[in-house]
Automatic annotation (TrEMBL):
It comes from Streptomyces paromomycinus. The keyword Lipoprotein applies. Keywords: Lipoprotein, Repeat, Signal. Residues 160-314 form the Carbohydrate-binding/sugar hydrolysis domain. This is Lipoprotein. Residues 1-24 form the signal peptide. SUPFAM superfamilies: Pectin lyase-like.
Amino acid sequence: MGIKRRNQALPAAALALLASGCFGTPGAGSQPSAAPSTSGARSAAAKVCAGPAPGPAQAPAGAVTVDPSVVGDLSAKTRSSPPGTTFWLRPGTHRLDPDRYAQVVPKQGNHYLGAPGAVLDGRKKNQYAFSGTARDVTVRHLTVQGFVAPHDEGVVNHDSADGWVIEHTTIQRNSGAGLMAGARQRVRANCLRDNGQYGLNAYKDDGPVSGLVVEGNEITGNNTGDWERRKEGCGCTGGVKFWAVNGADVRGNWVHDNRGAGLWADTNNNDFRIEDNVLEANDGAALIYETSYNAVVRRNTIRRNNWVEGRRYAERGDNFPFATVYLSESGGEPRVKARTNKIEIYRNVLENNWSGITLWENADRFCNSPANTSSGDCTLLVRQADRCARPAIAAAPLYADCRWKTQRVDIHANRFVLDKSVVGCTVKCDRMAVLANYGTYPDWSPYQGERVAEAITLKQHNRWHDNTYVGPWTFVAHDPSRVLDFGQWQGAPYEQDAGSTLAPGAGD
């Protein structure tokens, strides 16, 4: 069990950038304030790590008390107690047996409550804290630290069991993912910080994960192992990573100072609501939504992201507009059931990030293509990749359905602010983009040439409108070479940003 690996759908130069590593310093970062009331955003930071809510000072009635002076007491009492037992961990540092595989294996409906100062410490000896397939387990008011899960594995809910509730818990300084997620999981008011790969990874071997809530958490300083540098193009890092999640509410979180992306949804995710978050000072993009479907992104405050990765990318001389909100082969699809049938991005404030929003579609990435880096997965409309072969792929319905398409994206009522003197750049940090590459591969591909670039730019109902721009913004359409000013972007044939305004800002 563990973290699923994918290569992200970036051009080769971008993959090389990520592989080179990002040396920003994760940490507490600056203290964000509420977004300006005129913006439509109302995000406020969830400052959990500095003051986590304390647990009960006394054992609840009927609870089993766990003694920190007895090594392995928590595991032993879990084994000897029936399902549905509540365990109260006394103040102090609790330890498991020293064997690397020693772990707590809950029974269905168990509750684990930490007293003020209760810590479960793996001491860099134990790989996992809580594992197994029991449903409806609760972990509250506990600090979990010092576990050494291998790469691509997690520490809490290691096996992605369903129905877990993780609240008011600090999960910090572990290897791998601090926390895994199963279906119907509730992750609320936690501090997820300084973990080796992810703060949270939502993935099940027999997925999809459904009905996930991630609310009011502080997620900071994750990917201390700098895995994109160590495993080129692994796509295995960030504050939170979602794989094949069907239905997620991600709201009211403070996602900041992570090495790599803040939030990253990768491969056949659907029906996301990402709202009222503060996404701030992440080394890479604030949000990547990749080969996925149907989402609402609204009322978020997104600032000072992508300074590390975006700068390195630009300094290498590549023209790809690697932005702070990056949609890669993702769009609205009415045939996939969700609370919306498009991707709608509205009433957000994006301030002093390295570039804005990029809509991208790789012409060579489709089901059954050797260029599909998603490990053989196919779209939710086809599923069986081997159906996407010649000659059938060249005709309806497979010509359309074998692609993850960036389509039906509606970007409106956002405020985009850029002061280059704050960002510390002179070029390539000022772009908004909708584009694709020239299709070349494989030789039997029906998507060769400019077909995909023409479609994403002009035919797939991707629209910017009624936005406010402050600063020296430029716009890219069709391919990286077409850099437009605001008038060209609004004019034929692109006709973007009707009803929008552009005003110069400080530092222009």
